[in-house]
Amino acid sequence: MPGSEPLLDFWFDPASSYSYLSAMRIESLAREAGVTLRWRAFLLGPIFRAQGWENSPFNQQPAKLRYMWRDLERICAARGVPFQRPSRLPRDSVLAARIACHCREAHWLPDFVRAVYRANFAEDRDIGQAAVLADCLEAAGQVSDVIMPEATSAAARPGLRAATTEAMELGIFGAPSFLVGGELFWGDDRLEQALDWALANQA
Amino acid sequence: MPGSEPLLDFWFDPASSYSYLSAMRIESLAREAGVTLRWRAFLLGPIFRAQGWENSPFNQQPAKLRYMWRDLERICAARGVPFQRPSRLPRDSVLAARIACHCREAHWLPDFVRAVYRANFAEDRDIGQAAVLADCLEAAGQVSDVIMPEATSAAARPGLRAATTEAMELGIFGAPSFLVGGELFWGDDRLEQALDWALANQA
User: Fold this and answer.
1) What's the whole-model pTM score?
2) A70 vs B: CB within 8 A
3) pLDDT number for residue A52
4) Hey, are the CB atoms on A174 and B51 less than 8 Å from each other?
5) Tell me, what's the pLDDT at B1?
6) Which of B70, B151, B85 is nearest to B123 (CA)?
7) Which candidate among A34, A107, B64, B157 keeps its CA 20 to 30 Å from the CA of B88?
């Protein structure tokens, strides 16, 4: 019976490297587990800036940044997920997140989000560019000239801001984050644990 | 044939919360896998300070710190490992690391290190105190009046400094870290992957 399934909120920023790992596998894992998934786009930038950081914390630690790319490379290789080290991190994800936030209920949303992550982390394309996102919309079977103006309209814009505020209020400080009831799980390596928690603690 | 086994270096700081998780399971996991383990104590403090930080990065992010305790709590509960949120993080780990570094070849070293982690993260004791470390040495079957003066002598002190410099040169930026050949793995959640790597890439 749909609706009685346990629920998991997947909070992601299209610029977040480790969210790529989760985006590529979360839908099939949640389906297998019988957990309903909500795709929740938000922006890490305002959360980092609220902590006094200009930018991704990775860019403050060269050793950690080097490690992160190697870690991603190894994990993608082990999972058979394509990976190409992007020439820039983080990329401007505002437009991508706006579309993902506005269209969060659309059946094609997961396809779009995966196309965005692939563009960023497997094809080294600049997801800050509308033309790249238009390709991602087309890849999800959508007409970008229809979706894009609507998702970026003045009426739609406060949605992403509200989502980011909500994320901050939920205690989210990084991505990917998974929220199950009041329990927060951070990092692709906690995805299985979050799904288990959803199953073990369902109402 | 001993000596032909693949090798894994376990880099830990006694003050590091997530290293507690690894310290409690790494010896049995490595034994099962047939991987030779080297316990490498070092200090995170100088590495953090080289990045311009006063202290643990967790203390710069209240949301992340809150999450970290909850995450540890959940993982310890799932693994049946005792956990009590320490009243202070990080604790002064210089003395504990000095002993662990000086006695790294001793057969009782893993028992001592586990006792230190238990004191810090299961009993909320101050591992900066010599009396607490004396208890940890006794728990490992050693006479602290013999070990302590030797491990903290002027002759022994440069050892820990050299280990910390070596860690930094290896690209280590946090703990626990696992080094297998030139491959760095960071975080308790990468321990299985590091062991697999050691087995798959042995000479």
Assistant:
1) 0.94
2) yes
3) 77
4) no
5) 44
6) B85
7) B157
Interface test with B, best of A61, A170, A183 (most B CBs within 10 A): A61
Provide the strand spans (E) within A17-121: 36-41
Residue to test with chain A: of B69, B173, B190, B191, most A Cβ within 10 A: B173
Q: Is B192 on the interface with A (CB under 8 A)?
A: no
Does B46 touch chain A if contact means CB atoms closer than 8 Å? no
Nearest to B171 among A67, A168, A171 (CB): A67
| pLDDT tens digits for range B95-147 | 999 999 999 999 999 999 999 999 999 999 999 999 999 999 999 999 999 99
Comparing CB atoms, the residue among B67, B173, B184 nearest residue A171 is B67
- Dmax (CA) for chain B in angstroms is 49
Rounded CA separation B18/B10 (Å) = 13
Closest CA to B15 of B112, B91, B118, B114: B91
Q: Which stretches in chain B have pLDDT values below 50?
A: 1-2
Shortest Cα distance from B52 to chain A (angstroms)?
A: 10
In chain B, the residue whose alpha carbon lies closest to the alpha carbon of A186 is B67
- Going by DSSP bridges, is the β-strand pair B177-180/B7-12 parallel, antiparallel, or unpaired? antiparallel
Average pLDDT for A163-189: 97
pLDDT at residue B203, rounded to an integer:
59
**pLDDT tens, position by position, A60-97:** 788 999 999 999 999 999 999 999 999 998 999 999 99
Would an 8 Å CB–CB cutoff place B60 in contact with chain A? Answer: yes
Residues 6+ apart with CB under 8 A from A32: none
* SS3 sequence of chain B: CCCCCCEEEEEECCCCHHHHHHHCCHHHHHHHHCCEEEEEECCCHHHHHHCCCCCCHHHHCHHHHHHHHHHHHHHHHHHCCCCCCCCCCCCCCHHHHHHHHHCCCCCCHHHHHHHHHHHHHCCCCCCCCHHHHHHHHHHCCCCHHHHHHHHCCCCCHHHHHHHHHHHHHCCCCCCCEEEECCEEEECHHHHHHHHHHHHHCCC
pLDDT given at position B76: 98
Residue A203 pLDDT = 59
